[in-house]
Amino acid sequence: MLAALRAKAEPALIVEDAEGAASEAGDVVAVVLKRGEIVSIGSAPEWWGTIREPSRKKLLAGGVLDAKVVADVTEAGGSVFAVGWESGPMSEWELTPPGDHDWVRAEAAVRSVRSQA
């Protein structure tokens, strides 16, 4: 059985084998983000367990990655790519492959919902 657990606002958790409507019940298999985007929960990237806590917090908070987070991720074996427009300067960094980026967004959603429960 699948069930979507929804907090007062987005995001929502999709859980498998849920016996009730508690966010702790069942295994989270996906999250529903803003505008209905569904992101599956996969395995944490290998580098996640070796980066420093401040970098984890910044990644989970979203937004622009600073040089310290970029260095922490790449030193731990993760990858990032620079984003820039036309011939302008690099404006920000993003995690790659996309699965790493999606996992971080999904993990942030799970923590957000569970902290509100």
Tell me what the structure shows.
With 117 residues, this protein is of the alpha+beta class. Helix content is 32%, strand content 27%. It contains three helices and six strands; from the N terminus they run ββββααββα. It has helices at 53-61, 67-75, 98-116; strands spanning 2-6, 12-16, 27-32, 38-40, 79-84, 90-96. A four-stranded antiparallel beta sheet has the order 1-2-3-4, with helices on one face. A two-stranded antiparallel ribbon has the order 5-6. Strand 3 (27-32) and strand 4 form a beta hairpin. The chain is globular, with a radius of gyration of 16 Å. The mean pLDDT is 83.
Question: Strands, helices and their partners?
Answer:
Blueprint: E1 2-6, E2 12-16, E3 27-32, E4 38-40, H1 53-61, H2 67-75, E5 79-84, E6 90-96, H3 98-116
Antiparallel strand pairs: 1-2, 2-3, 3-4, 5-6
